[in-house]
Amino acid sequence: MKNLEKIFNPKTIAIIGASPKKNSVGWGLVKNILEGKDSRKFFYVNPFEKEIGGIKCFSKIGDISQEIDLAVIAVRAKIVPQIVEQCCRKKVGGIIIISSGFAEIGKEGEILQDKIIKLVKSAKIPLIGPNCLGIIRPSIKLNVSFAPAFPKPGNIAFISQSGALIDSIIDKSLSENYGFSFLISYGNEADLTLSDFLLFVNKDRQTKVITVYLEGLKGGRNFMKVAKKISKIKPIVVLKAGRTEMGKKAVFTHTASLAGNYQIYQALFKQTGIIGVETIEELFDIAKVLAWQPKCKNGIGIITNGGGCGVLMADYCQELGVNLVKLDSKTIQKLKDSKIMHPAFSRNNPLDIVGDALSKDYQIAIEALLKQKNIYGLLIIQTLQIMTEVEKNAKIIVEAKRKWPEKPIVCCFLGGEMTKKGVEILEKNKIPNYPDLKRAAKAMKVLIYE
Amino acid sequence: MKNLEKIFNPKTIAIIGASPKKNSVGWGLVKNILEGKDSRKFFYVNPFEKEIGGIKCFSKIGDISQEIDLAVIAVRAKIVPQIVEQCCRKKVGGIIIISSGFAEIGKEGEILQDKIIKLVKSAKIPLIGPNCLGIIRPSIKLNVSFAPAFPKPGNIAFISQSGALIDSIIDKSLSENYGFSFLISYGNEADLTLSDFLLFVNKDRQTKVITVYLEGLKGGRNFMKVAKKISKIKPIVVLKAGRTEMGKKAVFTHTASLAGNYQIYQALFKQTGIIGVETIEELFDIAKVLAWQPKCKNGIGIITNGGGCGVLMADYCQELGVNLVKLDSKTIQKLKDSKIMHPAFSRNNPLDIVGDALSKDYQIAIEALLKQKNIYGLLIIQTLQIMTEVEKNAKIIVEAKRKWPEKPIVCCFLGGEMTKKGVEILEKNKIPNYPDLKRAAKAMKVLIYE
């Protein structure tokens, strides 16, 4: 395993190509590095500027007297080889090349990329990129990227061959209550490969689930070995792009990868225990539930205050192979004895507690179902009626979760503005909520032991 | 065709069971009816209250001297037959029964429901319900329901066998920029059926697309005839619940419907030209695009500032049968000549204009592709980079749409908070945006002529 400690936990960073020009890549790097200024030292390198924001610029990395753990390069592709050479001479701990214009643009770029690889290999310096966004570790305030926003810390590692995707995912995550342990954009994968990153994040305690956006693999055999080992410890969820002929063509002009045959990938995922998904939405729907909730046996209960939604959820569960347990006569008796349930409550699973259900109804229903031994997890649906106590319902669910920590709960509070506060209460307590019933059913499915 | 004019455009309404008790159904009806107080007269009926909010309560409907177009009933199931009898005697124009506790709860309720049906049939008064939420027509400020919020006016009619669903959909629509011409909850379908509603909304000019949540059909043969005729004029999108054995069981306790065999429904949809969908999310994803954008031939262009997203979109398009047109040499030349495109722009469809694209790049790319004759529609992707001009990009797309009104545009601005303003600009101008690439591709697919 390669030593990536100096890249992912650097004490000193040099930004080569730092810029005062607003909204440029070099400016984005400067803006983001400042966030972690109390935790580490950083240096700007730019021969055309004296200072940026009051901080001195060095002409070249060799002029910095201190040791440099991580050198970040964001200059024109043509001069990258000479910059890399300077970094090697300086014996930096690791390099990230943000710049594009390498193998992904054809022959000319390939030659440049080959030059760089030779240099770093002989100097034994690990390299991320080129043609990437950089890396982010929110928990230690490390943001070596030009991403437009700072993500929240959390338990999801996202390793992506596409940089642009990372930016949008950060913005998305900020309004969806989940956070990251790592965000790694690796672009052309010229030196360090996906397998290296998997091995590194696997050792990280914060990381509970590993998500990957993949175009093409380098070193497939090694990847298989690594993925097989890690997926037994931490779930790996992969979105593979370039599944069709049109997609494959687009891959090649993007990261110069060979997308390969998707059937082969599907077989590979099966053999290595990787969870394959089809969309970005699904990637994080599933990551969220895996990061937040425990796994369970296949016996699920559904509680709903909307009959139609109960019907739909029952359909999705059966289609996905999620087993709906029959309610015990004891459970039904408990519900009846409460004298609070609406007389028309369904007495079945899905348990329909009827549209006018208040939080007290939810509380009794949740307790009764979780007490039934062969119900190992709950899907809770809330439609928004005029009397619905959104926030109280959320708090009751959080309470129940504390009492039965081993039984996963997945929610589907349906609505918009008026349900938002409830969703926030749920998700701040790591109970995932989905805006569509099928997405919630799929999330529950992934928690069930095969 | 039945005359539903007095139900859907009433000049006078009586609310039987109006209540001052906050968050009750009778209170919800009162609160909502007040919204339209300048457009029509309304009367409260409740023998136990003298007044509600300063407005007089009548003991029974017979005490009101004026003619009543629409009587809304929200009292205990057991006394509903005698109230219906009073309404028949009063010769009201139509009745909506909100109350539940009829066929959906078993034998006892069935007897009550039969009584009611006999009464209204012999009096020839059309009836919606029982066991429903009511009806809403935002454009004329008619809200005869206990829904917690007032939806925006728009071009989508939603006819739903489930009332609870309608409430959540309203809340959802308020944060997703679409509106409704009709919202009709029809519950147990004891008198008026889905076919009656289809015929009525078909005649409405505002309605451009008809969405349906369906559990079971009454009068299948008539429905086939009606749906076949209407779907040629206005698209009908149906979410059928109770597709599986577990779902069917849940349907029966919900609206006392027989869910039937899903294969038969699929055949029926095909024969009648109905678009069948699987989730609530899909129902409105598709309704929105059909309400807002024109149909086109199968030749689509993709513009993206994120290579990975271009790859994924190409995959979805191929999988769905959306044809990506090859870019003409003339189109590519135009892009090159602009001298604004990033040197690494992809020269292919998907057209990757690279991560640092500004609104000027989008403008040139959109113009060039729309000018190519055999490109009949555009999928536009925006990932969020530090330099991305979200709002400017949205405005440019709105401009382009004005110039080429016959070419549909579907967007996928990926992100959260920071992309929100752009999405609002797009959707206020009826250009649909989707938070996931596959959902955008599916929306484009539905616009393409078979």
From TrEMBL, chains A, B:
Domain CoA-binding, residue spans: 7-102
Full protein name: CoA-binding domain-containing protein
Top-level taxon of the source organism: Bacteria
Organism this protein belongs to: bacterium (Candidatus Gribaldobacteria) CG07_land_8_20_14_0_80_33_18
Pfam families noted in UniProt: CoA_binding_2, Ligase_CoA_2, Succ_CoA_lig
Keyword Secreted attached: no
Gene Ontology molecular functions: acetate-CoA ligase (ADP-forming) activity; ATP binding
Keyword terms: ATP-binding, Ligase, Nucleotide-binding
Gene3D superfamilies found in the cross-reference section: NAD(P)-binding Rossmann-like Domain, Succinyl-CoA synthetase domains
Coiled-coil stretches noted in the UniProt entry, renumbered to this chain: none
InterPro entries, per the entry: Acyl-CoA_Synth/Transferase, CoA-bd, Ligase_CoA_dom, NAD(P)-bd_dom_sf, Succ_CoA_lig_flav_dom, Succinyl-CoA_synth-like
